[in-house]
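Hi all, posting the design record for the shared folder.

TITLE: backbone redesign
STEP: 1 of 1
STRUCTURE INPUT:
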């Protein structure tokens, strides 16, 4: 009977040792996995931050953005980590009305250049506030055509303006989507 109890006890002890070994191994693997994920996450995040910086630099190099965008980024902090994206989103939401007003005013005959110039002045101010360089350039050209009474120039420039406006919107959507994946980055740096 003692041998049966000893055998049973030996089996339980062996099973306990095996479960400890398995448990220790699983914990070890979990710890190793966490360490590796942390290590590679830093490397991956570092690469992603470089890609994000390159993406932003290309927006400057291609003339889509100017210094005002960097100034907005400098206002972004831990309290408002999405400040720039929120400002740009508001710009696009609010500018829809201005674009519609301009489209309607351009359909009138005769053109009211004073009203067109007023709408474009507002649009240029909004565009300047986010650093939309190409859009701002088209706004300036449009206003010049208003001053000289060139209706065809206004219409042609407005079509180009809408194209630049839509292109920048798409590029910034991609930029902000990627920025959300990367997470918080260091303070904004001035473009080269």
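Okay, here is what came back for every position:
SEQUENCE:
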């Amino acid at each position: 009977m003692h041998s049966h109890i000893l055998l049973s006890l030996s089996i339980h002890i062996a099973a306990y040792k095996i479960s400890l070994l398995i448990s220790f191994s699983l914990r070890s693997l979990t710890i190793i996995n966490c360490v590796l994920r942390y290590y590679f996450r830093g490397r991956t995040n570092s690469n992603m931050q470089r890609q994000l910086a390159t993406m932003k630099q290309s927006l400057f190099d291609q003339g889509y953005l100017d210094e005002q965008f960097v100034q907005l980024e400098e206002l972004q902090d831990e309290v408002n980590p999405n400040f720039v994206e929120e400002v740009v989103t508001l710009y696009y939401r609010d500018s829809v009305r201005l674009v519609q007003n301009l489209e309607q005013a351009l359909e009138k005959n005769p053109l009211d250049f004073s009203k067109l110039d007023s709408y474009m002045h507002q649009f240029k101010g909004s565009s300047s506030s986010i650093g939309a360089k190409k859009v701002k350039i088209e706004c300036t050209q449009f206003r010049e055509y208003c001053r000289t009474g060139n209706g065809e120039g206004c219409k042609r420039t407005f079509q180009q303006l809408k194209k630049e406006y839509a292109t920048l919107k798409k590029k910034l959507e991609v930029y902000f989507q990627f920025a959300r994946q990367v997470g918080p980055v260091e303070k904004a740096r001035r473009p080269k």
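COMMENT: The chain has six helices and no strands.
Let me know if anyone wants the other runs.
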